[in-house]
Specification:
Length: 119
């Protein structure tokens, strides 16, 4: 006695997964590495600017260091800003990646203006 199996309905071919999520993830990783590097440089330069304190009004070298590292920190913060906004707008990264850039820029700007030591 042979048992006949019912014919199986033909299944439609499975669509191939698109490669877009992997490409988008790779772009997000590249942007994240560049942003973290920029944030670290901006944070380090701004931190050095805040840690430099002149000994008195005659200490021009300390004032120059504050200006140099404050401008360096502000420059790196402003250079990373377009990349952070682009990555957030394209949804490669989340919106909170803009916050460290804004904080670093405000901290560096503050050291150059409001918190600059009086002579």
């Amino acid at each position: 006695m042979t048992v006949q199996q019912a014919p199986q309905p033909s299944q439609p071919p499975q669509p191939q997964p698109s490669r877009r999520p992997q490409a988008s993830r790779a772009k997000g990783v590249v942007c994240a590495v560049l942003l973290v590097t920029g944030f670290l440089v901006a944070g380090a330069a701004t931190g050095i600017a805040y840690l430099s304190n002149p000994l008195g009004p005659w200490d021009h070298q300390a004032y120059d260091h504050i200006r140099l590292f404050g401008k360096l920190g502000l420059s790196f913060a402003l250079l990373t800003a377009p990349l952070a906004v682009l990555a957030a707008a394209r949804r490669w990264l989340r919106l909170w990646w803009i916050v460290p850039c804004a904080v670093a820029a405000m901290a560096a700007w503050g050291r150059l203006t409001v918190f600059f030591p009086a002579r």
